[in-house]
Amino acid sequence: MMDLKKNQANNNSVDFNNLNEKHISIQLSLDGFSFCIINKTQKQVEKLEHFPFEDTLTGPEKLLKKIEEIFTKEKALQKRYGSVNITHVNQLSTLVPKSLFEEDRIRDYIKFSSKTYVNDYLVYDELENHDLINVYIPFVNVNNFFLERFGSFEYKHFSTVFVNTLLNTFKFSEHPHMFAHIGEKQFEIMVIAHDKLVFYNSFSYQSKEDFIYYILFTAEQLDLNPENFELILAGKIDTANDLYKIAYSYVRKVSLLENRSQFKFPSNIKEETKRKHFTLLNQYS
Fold first, then answer.
1. Are 200 and 163 in contact (CB under 8 A)?
2. Whether residue 2 has pLDDT greater than 50
3. What are phi and psi of 120, to 5 degrees?
4. Which conformational region is residue 224 in: left (phi greater than 0), alpha (psi within -120 to 50 degrees), or beta?
5. What's the pLDDT tens digit per position in 167-224?
6. Cα–Cα nearest to 176, from 224, 221, 212
7. From CA 172, how far away is CA 166, in angstroms rounded?
8. What is the pLDDT of the chain when averaged over all its residues?
9. Concatenated DSSP letters for 172-207?
10. What pLDDT is recorded for position 8?
11. Max CA-CA distance within the chain?
12. Contact 104, 122 (CB under 8 A)
């Protein structure tokens, strides 16, 4: 069994005798695994941990094996909580206007943006307040594992949480906003303009030049002037990062996404950590 590295921030005061008052949020991808434990009564984040994978995994089978190793070693994951949320991070998703969505055509919506197979299991999330449907392929084998461990739970796609949270916060802004959520080897771009979502897509990148190319190309296609729109960065990013620096060289208004969580945090959880785990911390409300 391989050694597991983790980055953690917690207040070391999780009371496992009152688990009905606790919620656990989990986020998983081929790049890593994260979870946080929330005291629902006190609205307090009690534990936050992230297990980065040194090499991106090649498929759901290896992801399941890695998660099984993490569960074996991490005692906090061996408990039953009052509520459980799971978020799947992958590029196998597409947003569909609710007015155009037909459930019996669910496979048609995603086949143009992602390679699918006959046996793929497709599901969808509804963004109720924004008339959007998010069609995606979850990690089914991992869901089955969670079902054995936790019993019932809710799961969504990463982009559902990301888009819904930002739309709720920025929908009525007076000027266009572009958001970039940055991961290890991919990032997502979302644009809100004219009180609605006008763009969302995921891109792979290897360099800062790749990153700024997609930012500027998206702006050009949407007729957004880099002098006027605001670029807000989330995920694994800070002002010392090369991606931030190159963005600031080409876009006039660049900022980091602020934490607006309803929860209290241990003093050792920095703003950088909250920004990195933005979607994980917004799964539960």
1. yes
2. no
3. -65, 140
4. beta
5. 999 888 888 999 999 998 899 999 999 888 999 999 999 999 999 999 999 999 999 9
6. 224
7. 11
8. 91
9. T-SS-EEEEEE-SSEEEEEEEETTEEEEEEEEE-SS
10. 59
11. 56
12. no
Summarised one tens digit per residue, pLDDT across range 143-152 is 999 999 999 9
Tens digits of per-residue pLDDT, 152-177?
999 999 999 999 999 999 888 888 99
Q: How far apart are CA 231 and CA 253, in angstroms?
A: 6
Which residues is 35 bridged to in the sheet?
26, 49
Q: List strand residue ranges (DSSP E) for 105-244, in order.
A: 123-127, 132-136, 154-157, 177-182, 186-193, 196-204, 230-235
Going by the DSSP 8-state scheme, the letter that residue 270 receives in this structure is: -
Q: Compute and round to an integer the Cα radius of gyration of the chain.
A: 19
What is the rounded CA–CA span in Å between residue 178 and residue 250? 14
Contact 71, 150 (CB under 8 A): no
Cα 96 from chain centre: 19
Which of 11, 1, 4, 13 has the alpha carbon at shortest distance from 266?
11
Percent above pLDDT 90 for the chain: 79
CA distance 151 to 145: 10
Query: What is the DSSP-derived secondary structure letter of residue 9?
Result: E
Per-residue pLDDT, averaged over 18-25, amounts to 93
Question: CA 87, CA 89: separation in Å to the nearest integer?
Answer: 7
Q: Extract the tokens encoding 52.
A: 């980065």
Closest to 236 in 3D by CA, of 31, 24, 46: 31
Task: Judge contact between 109 and 135, C-beta under 8 A.
Answer: yes
* Residue with tokens 């590295």, as numbered in its chain: 5
Q: Is 95:159 a contact under the CB 8 Å cutoff? A: yes
Task: Quote the CA–CA distance of 282 and 171 in Å, as a whole number.
Answer: 17
The answer to whether the CB of 122 falls within 8 A of the CB of 106 is yes
